[in-house]
Amino acid sequence: MRGEECKVSEGLEYCMTLENSAQKCLDNGIGRELTKEEDLAKLRENQDMGLVLQCDTTQDIDFICSCCGCCCGMLSILKSIPHPLDFWYTPFKAELNPDVCVSCGICEDKCQMEAIKVSSPAVIQESKCI
């Protein structure tokens, strides 16, 4: 959106709308329809790239976005806050196993919130981890 290439991915399909919102997009010639299997495969692919899966917080979900830390406006705002976890809810908590960590840096590269720093072993900055 800023005229720069994404540092995480090369594709264009990272946001999904569902149900009525999806139909409105299709009616306006925006996007394309996917099967449930295609949806799930795309979400797995996006997650494997290290993108952060986000959805709206309603009972009937209207969208699911797969966000990177360099292009996504929401994650950019969260990254600028010293303690983003104060403004974000997640029932999950990232953990590192120091017995397995070889300080290769893959987790640091994949973390879109820059919450992991590789030392020996890597360290998660819990207040930044969403």
The termini sit apart by: 24 Å
Runs with pLDDT <50, length 5+? none
Query: How can the largest sheet be summarized?
Result: 3 strands, antiparallel
Count of spatially separate domains: 2
Helix-strand string: EHHEEHHEE
Tally the beta strands: 5
The amount of beta strand, in percent, is 5-15%
- Order of neighbouring strands in the sheet with most strands: 1-3-2
Question: How much helix is in the residues?
Answer: 25-40%
Q: Quickly give the structural class.
A: alpha+beta
Which geometry do the CA atoms define? elongated
Query: Taking Cα atoms only, what radius of gyration do you get, to the nearest Å?
Result: 16 Å
Give average pLDDT, whole number.
86
Compute the number of helices.
4
